[in-house]
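Re: the pair you flagged

First of the two:
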Amino acid sequence: MIRSALTAAAFVALSAPAFATTFTFETAEPVKDGQVVAIGTVWLCEGTVCKGDLDRKKASVRDCKKIAKKAGVIVSYGNDKSELEADDIESCKKSAR
């Protein structure tokens, strides 16, 4: 009985959907075509500002670099709780296409 309850609880925990967080990045130049596909996300863009949902809580330089390879020079990247600092953005800029 206890084993069944534990198995059911584990199944529910593993099958629960992951909660995505909306991230935003801004580029130095307007994004062509209004979207960028990077790190498994379609980023929808208006001018130089792009938004997309990621299953992460914090902004990372690694993700910024991957986006920069597709979108160009990134001038800001983050979400409402985590944003890259100026030195991290400079590191990200080195990966721009």
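Second of the two:
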Amino acid sequence: MSAPVFPDLEGASVFITGGGSGIGAALSEGFLRQGAKVAFVGQSDASAFVDRMAAETGNRPLFIKCDITDTAALKAAMDQTASAHGPITVLINNAANDKRHATDEVDEAFWDWSIAINLKAYFFACQTVLPAMQAAGGGVIINMSSVSYMMGNAGYPIYTTANAGITGMTRSLAREFGPHGVRVNALAPGWVMTEKQKELWVTPEALDEQLSRQCVKTPLEPCDMVGPVLFLASDASRAITGQLIAADGGVVVTG
């Protein structure tokens, strides 16, 4: 699937958390093909992905190994990105972990870890990038969420709690920093067929049940998230901020 071209994204300094696998890898590739300067962080080595992107797109991303639950390390990675590519003008908070858990089995340590990766890191990435965006007269933040909390899904209550928090944070930051030209939106994917999802949870029965809920009867792939994110990052969406957009094939409705 070919992504639309947004000329204003060429040369943009883009920072993506979790940009080496799953949806994040598709987003990294999407921005690279726009001619953006892409940096991404992740915990696993992404050297092979970086080399492949350089060969396939002619545009080499900057990979920084980082645990985003370590706030100091995350801020250092963002500072390194700004030094290499110029001030970050597009932030994509994408990294998350939807590890399944039962409410009665959660202890404080698991709660703290899950909130740290699924919500806390989002906030501090925003906090880190906002001064430079204000100084530049504008910027874009896109927070990747999930429709799971809108569906009231069971099986990962801290994850859905964090995703609900992402929506609240998105709206508040959009209101606070809109006067400085900063737009903040959230994109909520549906069930996207990443390698992790297929390895752990996708079965023919589960997929059939999911498709029965979707208006569009096609399994969602990581590339399906690229167009919406590029649109939200581009000036083409300059009138859109403080919004949560569901990209789920039509399972939930918003508004």
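The chain has one domain: 7-247.

-B.
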